[in-house]
């Protein structure tokens, strides 16, 4: 009887909680890899954004002391020069996004779609990855050396009797900046739209053809409705990419063209017009536009991803 009572007692002793150890190990592994990313986001995104939010509503104090709450800096945003900068930024971003979406989408479909040259797919992806990240001062200098007043292409065309600048072209104006922005917007569109094109299944086209649908009917009833969320999401991301660009526009126009990012730099670092709180109010406007852009992109991308599962 004694042995029979001790047996169940021994069996009732639970083993070491292996599941708990595995859970802690997985948590530590996640923290090891995700922790540095969260620290970088906190230091370079969340904290600066919070500082901009606070500074936009803070008045200048006396003798360096912190001031109180004010809406004066936000009211200054209604001044004509800042409204002009906002309008130019919206037009430049929207125009380059449309150009990038149309040309980049057609280029991607010509290569990635059915019947496209398979040998050109990898080179196009590789070039797009490089060109989409080739921006800032190097891109501006490259265009100056190519299409500037004494650029290589400008001189070659002048040698055959074609003077670009006498026919209205000017690299250092709004139109020239649109051309420069299109250089990195088009390859970025190729990268963004390629997964959606891969999700456009050949079986759908074959089924439409078997049912007697023409190519135009297929694109109107199947192709474009499927691609529409991804196309709109890509266009929104291109818009945000151009709206926040600073270095390219500054290097190409020396800050002469009124754009919102350039105006922020002017009021933050200018010797005469230095006004940090006004710069933070302008930056808050940029953050608001970019927040709306990212929310729209996330929503549209979620809709478009349904066809890629």
From TrEMBL:
Similarity field: Belongs to the binding-protein-dependent transport system permease family. CysTW subfamily.
Membrane topology: Multi-pass membrane protein
A Pfam family it matches: BPD_transp_1
Any Gene Ontology CC annotation: plasma membrane
Top-level lineage group: Bacteria
Keywords: Cell membrane, Membrane, Transmembrane, Transmembrane helix, Transport
Domain ABC transmembrane type-1: 86-296
Transmembrane segments: 31-57, 90-112, 124-148, 169-197, 217-240, 247-269, 281-300
Keyword Signal: no
Phylogenetic placement of the source organism: Bacteria, Thermotogati, Deinococcota, Deinococci, Deinococcales
Organism name: Deinococcus aquiradiocola
PANTHER family: INNER MEMBRANE ABC TRANSPORTER PERMEASE PROTEIN YDCU-RELATED (PTHR42929:SF1), INNER MEMBRANE ABC TRANSPORTER PERMEASE PROTEIN YDCU-RELATED-RELATED (PTHR42929)
Residue runs in coiled coils: none
Example of a GO biological process term: transmembrane transport
Annotated localization: Cell membrane
Keyword Membrane: yes
Protein name: ABC transporter
């Amino acid at each position: 009887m004694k042995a029979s009572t001790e047996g169940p007692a021994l069996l009732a002793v639970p083993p070491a909680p292996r599941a708990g150890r595995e859970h802690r190990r997985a948590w530590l592994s996640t923290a090891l890899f995700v922790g540095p990313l969260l620290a970088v986001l906190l230091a370079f995104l969340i904290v600066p954004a919070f500082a901009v939010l606070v500074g936009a509503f803070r008045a200048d104090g006396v003798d360096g002391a912190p001031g109180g709450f004010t809406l004066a800096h936000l009211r200054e945003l209604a001044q004509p020069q800042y409204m002009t900068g906002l309008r130019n930024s919206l037009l430049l971003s929207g125009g380059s996004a449309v150009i990038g979406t149309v040309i980049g989408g057609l280029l991607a479909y010509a290569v990635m779609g059915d019947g496209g040259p398979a040998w050109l797919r990898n080179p196009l992806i590789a070039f797009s990855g490089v060109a989409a990240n080739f921006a800032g001062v190097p891109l501006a200098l490259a265009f100056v050396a190519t299409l500037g007043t004494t650029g290589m292409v400008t001189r070659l065309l002048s040698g055959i009797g074609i003077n670009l600048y006498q026919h209205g072209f000017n690299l250092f104006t709004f139109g020239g900046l649109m051309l420069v922005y299109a250089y990195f917007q088009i390859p970025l569109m190729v990268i963004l739209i390629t997964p959606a094109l891969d999700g456009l299944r050949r079986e759908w086209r074959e089924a439409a053809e078997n049912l007697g649908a023409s190519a135009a009917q297929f694109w109107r009833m199947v192709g474009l409705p499927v691609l529409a969320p991804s196309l709109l999401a890509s266009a929104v991301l291109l818009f945000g990419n151009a709206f926040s660009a600073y270095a390219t526009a500054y290097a190409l126009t020396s800050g002469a063209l009124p754009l919102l990012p350039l105006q922020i730099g002017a009021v933050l670092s200018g010797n005469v017009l230095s006004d940090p709180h006004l710069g933070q109010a302008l930056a808050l406007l940029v953050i608001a536009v970019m927040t709306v852009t990212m929310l729209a992109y996330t929503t549209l991308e979620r809709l478009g991803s349904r066809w890629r599962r």
